[in-house]
Design a protein that fits this description.
Layout: E1 2-6, H1 12-19, E2 23-27, E3 33-35, E4 45-48, E5 51-54, E6 56-58, H2 60-76, E7 79-82, H3 88-100, E8 108-110, H4 118-126, H5 133-160, H6 172-187
Helix pairs in contact: 3-5
Length: about 200
């Protein structure tokens, strides 16, 4: 049996129909793990001179069940195709699946496609590849920065606002700064008289 894992359960029946007997198509239902809430400031990762060390845990009861069920299937499969979305989040999910299911090199392949058709899926299988560690590291960086900035900046904002439930984030805080800066420009605008001249030549 060959196992193919997608993100969305809505795709499993259609893809299973393309592949036929000898295949099992299952879904991870998105991310199966998340950063732990431990270590310094409950961030789930440590930053040292040599790099960043992340600690991941199953994403709640649902994530734990998905991991358990997929691991049981993966142990029976001759090969596992990781068919998560073709972006950095999808690449990261595939890496976590590989880690959580205990897949060794040679027992899994990464595939991507941009349309759910029989031809696209079968071509992707024929052109399977290794995991793209550059994409995976990009997702790790985004995830750790989100938590680092979000957790620490939110605490500062809450202290400054007398404990009110306000948050800050890597993207939202920068966007808010741009909005506030533009609003100050609007409020500080001083009208300047100007005239329009029209002429008719004969």
């Amino acid at each position: 049996m060959k196992l193919l894992i997608v993100e969305s359960p809505n795709k499993t029946k259609t893809i299973a129909g393309f592949l036929g007997a000898g295949w099992s198509v299952k879904a991870s239902v998105g991310h199966i793990t998340e950063l732990a809430s431990d270590g310094d400031d409950n961030l789930g990762f440590d930053i040292t001179k040599s790099g960043v060390s992340c600690r991941y845990v199953p994403r709640g009861d649902r994530g734990a069940k998905v991991i358990k069920d997929l691991r049981a299937l993966a142990q029976k499969a001759e090969i596992v195709y990781l068919a998560t979305d073709p972006d950095r989040e999808g690449e990261s999910i595939s890496w976590h699946l590989k880690e959580q299911l205990g897949l060794e090199d040679g027992r899994y392949r990464r595939i991507t496609y941009t349309q759910i058709t029989e031809a696209a899926v079968k071509t992707a299988i024929d052109q399977s590849r290794d995991l793209d560690m550059d994409l995976i590291r990009a997702q790790f960086a985004r995830q750790t920065l989100d938590k680092l900035v979000g957790f620490k900046a939110s605490r500062l904002v809450q202290r400054a606002s007398a404990g009110q439930a306000r948050s800050a984030g890597r993207v939202q805080s920068a966007a808010l700064h741009i909005v506030c800066q533009r609003e100050r420009e609007i409020q500080g605008f001083k009208p300047v008289p100007y005239w329009s001249v029209q002429a008719e030549y004969k």
